[in-house]
Amino acid sequence: MSGKRNIGASLKPASSLKAARTGQPILRVDDLVVRFDTVEGLIHAVNGVSFSLQPGEVLGVVGESGCGKSVTMMSLIGLIPQPPGQIVGGQALFAADDGPVDLLALDRKDLRALRGGQIGFIFQDPISSLNPTMPIGRQIAESMVEHLHLNESEAQRHTIALLRDVGIADAENRYHSYPHEFSGGMRQRVMIAIAVACQPKLVVADEPTTALDVTVQAQILELVRALQQEMGMAVIWISHDLGVVAGLADRIAVMYGGTIVESGPADDLFERPRHPYTAGLLGAMPSVADDAGAEDRPLVSIEGYPPDLLRELVCCPFANRCSYAVERCWQERPPLLSAGRQHELACFVDLATVGSSGDVR
Amino acid sequence: MTGTTLPLEDEYAEPTVAGRLAYVGELLWRDKAAILGLVIILLLVIAAVFAPLLAPHDPLAQNLRNTKQPPAWQEGGTWDHVLGTDRLGRDSLSRIIYGARVSITVGFFGAALAATLGMVAGLVAGYLGGWVDNVIMGLVNLLLSIPYLVLVIVVAAILGRSLLNVVLLFGITASPLFARVTRGEVLRIRNSGYVESAQAVGAKTGRILFDHVMPNLIGPLVTLATFEMSAMIFYEAGLGFLGLSVPPHVPSWGNLLAIGRESLLAGMPWLSVYPGLAIAITALGMNLFGDWLRDVLDPRLRRIRR
Amino acid sequence: MQRYLLSRLLQSLLLMAGVLVIVFFLVRLTGDPASLLINRDYANPEQMAQMRAAFGLDKPTHLQFVDYVGRLLRGDLGYSLRFRGPALDVILSGLPITVLLSSLALLLAVAVAVPLGIVGGTSPNSLVDFVARIIGLLGQVTPSFWLALILIWVFAVNLRWLPSFGIDTPRSYVLPAVALSVGGMGQLARLTRSAVLEIRNEDYIRTARSKGLSPRAIAARHVFRNAALALVSVIGVQFTYALSGSVYIETIFAIPGMGWMLNEAIRNRDFVLVQALTIFIASFAIIMNLITDILYAAIDPRIRY
What we know:
Helices cover 29% and strands 22% of the residues of chain A. By secondary structure, chain A is of the alpha/beta class. In chain A, strand 11 (337-338) and strand 12 (344-345) form a beta hairpin. Chain A is globular. Chain B has helices spanning 17-30, 32-49, 51-54, 92-128, 130-145, 148-159, 163-173, 175-190, 194-200, 205-241, 253-258, 260-265, 270-297. The longest helix of chain B has 37 residues, at 92-128. By secondary structure, chain C is an all-alpha fold. Classes of the chains: A alpha/beta, B mainly alpha, C mainly alpha.
């Protein structure tokens, strides 16, 4: 990992634990803009996303499909295909082992050194995300060989131990099994093992439970929580399902139309959503925080369609579906501003000032 | 995952025919190779239809005083016979232009016949299922298991040389491909849940299949037909080369090439070069256009950017 | 696995039986097989009758079929009038030549097309890819018999580097093999390219990238193995493709293989040999397919029966 540039002299190189105490974020993304140049036209997938993540923190990123949540995270570590994808602007400071770096400014080789080593990725569909013709053990081990510079037999030993850690029985023999010989849940455990193989400081989990059935979902959630606490890594958990992230995330960011519309501590956000879209999501969902006095209320779906990303975002992306929309919402984009302790909001209305929640339309 | 377009409400409106055509036209314009292919095909059709107007000479007219003349740009060539003459003094260019007629006829009618036969067989097999399906698909697999060139050579040898026979030959031997595609589509629709949900509303199975299968079939069948047309033109030339296609006096590209080896050894390479070039350019045009057609008509194969 | 092998074997036998039936009736569809067996112009009615009796053609068709199958099972493919010998012996004399020629052509096709396709698929829309695609396309649209003529004109007639006919020296195989390889080369190049391209878009390649592997490691460990699987499944088809293409090439270069024999048999209306060759080549193709499937099952871990 030579030739890494130090960006921002004010950011001191620091270990993650130290950073945690000093409140230094492990990842800080500023104004990320990503577009896709397709035959249909320019798709404005991510339109100025900013957030930060503390070491050991679990951030839930929530939004319906197509809102740019996966693209955001994948573009950070260079996993979107370029072309057609292009990162138009922004900065992403990552507190790497030997100093902070801007992920978006790194050259391919340096980024590769971080990927899989200090940043792990868990994908949605474990069957298509594993190489069908390679034994799963080798798929995990190759990451260790690459980043920890282990030899084959050491990597194999570590992998077998890791397989046990992620709950795969008979690990010695299963090392040599192929993906199709596992059940969906077991495959996702393999996927998780790949992501954490090198004890990363940050794991991005892109809807890792969506393709699984409900009982297995719970086990996977439990596993990630346990690993997260054990290894002390930060986790970004992407989901279209508020219920999934509810019990896991410390903080939640809600995305819509390629922007973050609201973010805040999980409890806070669930109890007092301040963006009409967040409120709509909560209203469209079978009661999450049922202890929080959510009595029998009808499920309300949000009417209308998400914005056409072929057009540049010039107003609030939610304006056309929002019953609170005022004239200003159509004229300019509301910026994401601090709205109380650890709470950020991009809305001209702010439900906290309007009153009722969970009642859009 | 990424880059999906999210339509607004008004974009769910049914597109007009003109709108669709404009869209297809735009897609075509983006693919210059496909345009080249289309231009080649159009030129070929024009050559075939207007052969008597375009050909400078009668393709069968012999001129024993002007034999073995090389192309115009070579020593001894004249612009009267641009691509030279053969050993009987017949004009090469005219014979190649007339040859397009045989190729187009065989390609078009052969593919049309194969598509029709194959579609009927595939619909019957897929719709009736059971032993009918087994018999039809058994036959299909059987015909496909014999190397195609050997099959057409043997059948052509048995049928004898005539244009009708060649069309029949290709129409029949290529039909299994179309049958297989059709049956696959019927089964896919059958298993897709459309049928059950439509049955629940009280529609008849045959009607449902027909309504859902036909629109889905057009794309794959037209694409296959384009490629098969190109293949048939290729194989017809091959048969002609072996002396098994249209009667020897008919100027077809294959027949022109049949004397290729002798012409070479007699120092008349132009008699082999240009008919072969005509075959290659035709196949090129149809392949380029076919590739594009497959991308457009088979949405399952479409990607964001190739 | 064993059950799969057995069912696949059975299926192949069934296909071969079907080929027998088809070929038998195809030849009889033309009318009186006796008139195909000898030249009617030179035979009087008595001779024709003798002929029918000699070949059992006076019996009802289904009994003829039984006879014919019985003889086939005894390895008797009939007597070739053109080559004046048992059809089986005639075919066996041509078989090694054709197999050698087809193998050379296939080898050449693979050697050129696979690297081209890999480079093209790995860096799509690059200059190398453009060249690879052009070559792939040209290979597909160039008639092999025409290319053979051009090669003869250039390398045999004008440059006098290589022989234009026969198989007297190893050098004799160069031009025929090149001409025969061209179609398969085009197809293989396009196939390899699209296989590589498709695999590169697979989710598991994204996973490999998320591990921070170098592009070279990803290509070697994840892309090529899976692309090779796609190629194995078409190699058998490509071989039969070359085998049947030898009809043109062996005819042009006067190479005494099975392809040349088929053409000779047809020209001389030697339908016994035509029948025998068709059955032989079709069976060959069916067996190649069987081998390919078994090979594929053996190397693809996903397939377990």
